[in-house]
Amino acid sequence: MKLKSTRLDLRPLTLAQLSLAGLNYAGLERDFGLNVSGTVLDDEMLYAMQVRHSKVLQDPLNYPWLTNWAVIQREEQRLIGFIILKGCPNDQGEVIVGYTINEGHRRQGYATEALQCICGWIFSDPRALWVIADTEKDNAASHKVLKHLGAQKHRETKELIWWRIARPDTQAPAGTVV
What we know:
Radius of gyration: 15 Å
CATH superfamily: Gcn5-related N-acetyltransferase (GNAT)
Distance between the termini: 6 Å
Number of helices: 6
CATH topology: Aminopeptidase
Number of strands: 9
Structural class: alpha+beta
Oligomer: single chain
Helix content: 25-40%
């Protein structure tokens, strides 16, 4: 499966690719047929790969809802980040997402474009009513991304702001599935 937006391709990592990402990132890039970047995952992203691997192992049929999605910059043929889906829509119709874009590709609209694309896919499921994302209170760049997508502050804790994006009344496709 692949989602396409104007400049990006989004591809869900398989169980094997989740394993490969933590052991040999260049191998993951080659597995996708991409240019090797020399990127090394930080501890937080390595942990996210392990958690997603465990979730996909437990429920392989729903893996697109449980995995990390590669954000691929099509022109450069580079893996520039990930969107993390944390499960199928829950009883309230919520789907929780996380995201990261590599430092050299930030502030170019890629996070907004990638999230808009994945939201189109998420909202194509009739169970999905809300996309939920949390950000650290001092992460102004992420706040800006979410505001561009129409997200509203949902709740706050001492350290985090939880945002939610409502399902549009009329869904215009943000990305195409190929």
